[in-house]
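BACKBONE GEOMETRY TOKENS
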Amino acid sequence: MKVQIDIISEVEEEVVHFQVHSVEKNINRAIQILNSAEKDAGSLLCKKDETFYKIKKDDIFYLETMDRKVFVYTEKDTFEIAEKLYVLEEQLYPYGFIRISKSMLLNFNQIYSFYPKLSGNLEALLLNQEKVIISRRYVAGLKRKLGMGENE
């Protein structure tokens, strides 16, 4: 069996196309994997009190690493996740997550407002009324995401 992968632009829809003599067990399994991956693309598998939960990415306010563990914060709960923050950063970027400090990723869609601090950092007020600090080092990335120029 020959496998061919064509890299396309991000604006194009991804398509999987099979050319087979018959739909056998391995092809059905591949289809199941692809379908389940698409369904789960909008959620992360997280743990709280030894129980696992699928948390929708839209429900996540931010992710933070502390003591070599990564925590996922929603409006009312905190969960732990096994992945490293840098891996999650790559996975979550298309969903509106941005790095705001060395130890934190923020769901851009959960920001209510933000304002500058004297230190050069920004403070963001989230939709759940929680405040987080956006480190000076990551302010430019936030401004780019907002479409703001460097001079503003």
About this structure: The two ends are 55 Å apart (CA to CA). The chain has three helices and ten strands. The mean pLDDT is 86. Helices lie at 25-40, 85-92, 136-146.
